[in-house]
Design a protein that fits this description.
Number of helices: 14
Number of domains: 3
Oligomer: single chain
Strand content: 15-25%
CATH class of the largest domain: Alpha Beta
CATH architecture of the largest domain: Alpha-Beta Horseshoe
Number of strands: 21
Distance between the termini: 52 Å
Length: about 475
């Protein structure tokens, strides 16, 4: 009765939290399973950014409760942002939940599950769920354990070969002090807290030794990393100092980060894209709105003009830079003129990817009580307008890659199991034929077909056109290829 399945909702931070919990549970003797139908313990790691995300998790928990009628010892837990936001109130709708753990208590999950299982084995009645949403100093330092694919046996649960994991998330900072009017994150994640730089570097080095080639640094406002803990050295921020140290790690070939704030893109970070080859030319730069009036109402400390300056500065350093963004349509008081300004900036930046959200009221945030709430049908129309622009942008940008050779990090088999998948430096998904021995290698891929979100091509393992590629062996589909 120790089989655990963790279902994750929401962002990459939540994915990383779930992975850390899984690693801690496995170290305690629990078995992590790939199918929720095979588990004795189901943990839902939840999101609170939008009401729809909370309702989805609540609906799932309500459905899963029925398993207790057939499995009296079945354990259901709710973790993360919704647990932090709602706490014991969740028990009014979900009385059969056994465990509610907030965002600063993930490391307590193994102990709480031990207690629940021991009590049930002893026949001790449990009058109510365990609820822990208290703050805990130093909790940001507990998200450090990794459960990689290569930590499992060579053959997985199904008996099939498990491909090694070549990319990993590393949490460097948690919490947020920005107080954007629409956002519940400061309530669910707490105040801004950074991990020690030496510990982060050691974690990245250990991952490299285990075969990881790409690191994504994570934080609520990742560019604010260490601003209260480390000094700026010669105008270089603590975050850029961290990028320099991770860049120096042997075995790490690519570095990404998310999610930043526009105010973090000072001269030192922009310049880093020109001097750090491992830092991928892909930037997630949340815009939220292209209207200065709405940006002020959102409590976003920049203007549309400053935002465009950042984009232009980054493209001056790397002309082929890829951009993604977050945009909220229908913020309270957003007029048609405000939206047109957002649309204009959206078109001007020419995003390759975007997350477009319809404004959702989050109780407890300043925006929840603002007048002039925008009708749902207007939000939907504006949402569709931006999504249509995004589709055209993506098709156009991908079409420019036809016939070119792109560097791809081979991740492993695609969903069909017949071909392989990887990502370009610009974060585009690519599908191609390859040999399993190329997993974890940086290879040149000649693009011969594109869709809105995916590139298709053939590996170029001999006679590569253009400077910079080293072909170490030229046997088809088995060569080892790297950049000089």
């Amino acid at each position: 009765m120790n089989r655990v399945f963790i279902k994750t909702y929401g962002c990459q931070m939540n994915e990383r939290d779930s992975e850390a919990v899984a690693a801690m549970l496995r170290a305690r003797g629990y078995r992590i399973v790939a199918d929720e139908n095979d588990c004795d313990i189901l943990l839902l790691n939840t999101c609170s950014v939008r009401d729809a995300a909370e309702q989805k998790a609540i609906g799932k928990a309500g459905y899963v409760q029925q398993r207790k009628k057939k499995q009296p010892d079945f354990i259901l837990g709710i973790l993360g942002c919704m647990a932090q936001n709602r706490g014991a109130e969740l028990l009014d709708r979900l009385p059969d939940v056994d465990l509610i753990v907030g965002t600063q208590k993930f490391h307590q999950v193994p102990g709480y599950l031990d207690n629940l299982r021991a009590a049930r084995a002893a026949g001790v009645p449990l009058p109510e769920a365990i609820v822990d949403i208290a703050e805990e100093a130093g909790s940001q330092n507990t998200i450090r354990d990794h459960l990689l694919a290569q930590d499992f046996a060579p053959a997985g649960e199904s008996g099939e070969e498990v491909a090694p994991q070549v990319s990993a998330f590393v949490s460097i900072q948690q919490g947020c002090n920005m107080d954007c009017a629409f956002c519940i994150v400061p309530k669910t994640r707490g105040d801004e807290r950074s991990r020690p730089m030496d510990e982060i570097v050691a974690e990245c080095r250990a991952l490299a030794e285990r075969g990881v080639r790409e690191i994504t640094l994570l934080g609520q406002i990742v560019t604010s990393y260490g601003r209260r803990d480390y000094i700026h050295t010669d105008g270089v921020s603590p975050f850029v100092q961290l990028l320099d140290r991770v860049h120096a790690i042997e075995g790490i070939e690519r570095i990404r980060f998310t999610s930043p704030h526009p105010r973090g893109f000072k001269e030192d970070l922009v310049a880093a894209y020109g001097r750090l080859p491992k830092l991928c030319g892909y930037v997630h730069l949340p815009m939220q709105s292209g209207s200065n009036r709405i940006l002020r109402a959102m409590n976003r400390p920049y203007t549309r003009e400053r935002y465009r300056e950042i984009v232009d500065a980054l493209r001056a350093v790397r002309p082929d830079m890829y951009f993604s963004t977050d945009v909220i349509v229908g913020f309270p008081g957003e007029t048609e003129e405000d939206f047109q300004q957002t649309r204009e900036l959206f078109e001007a930046v020419n995003y390759d990817m975007a997350y477009v959200f319809k404004y959702s009221i989050r109780t407890g945030t300043p925006a929840a009580t603002l007048p002039d709430q925008v009708p749902e049908e207007v939000k939907e129309a504006r949402n569709q307008t931006l999504l249509g622009l995004l589709e055209k942008n993506s098709i156009r940008r991908n079409a420019t890659l036809l016939g070119t050779v792109e560097e791809v990090l081979v991740d492993g088999p695609d969903k069909t199991g017949r071909r392989f998948t990887g990502r370009t430096r610009g974060n585009r998904v690519a599908i191609f034929d390859a040999n399993p021995r190329l997993i974890g290698q940086l290879v040149p891929l000649k693009i011969d077909r594109t869709t809105v979100s995916t590139l298709y091509g053939e590996l170029v393992l001999a006679g590569v056109e253009g400077p910079g590629w080293r072909v170490q062996r030229q046997t088809p589909l088995s060569a080892s290829v790297s950049r000089l």
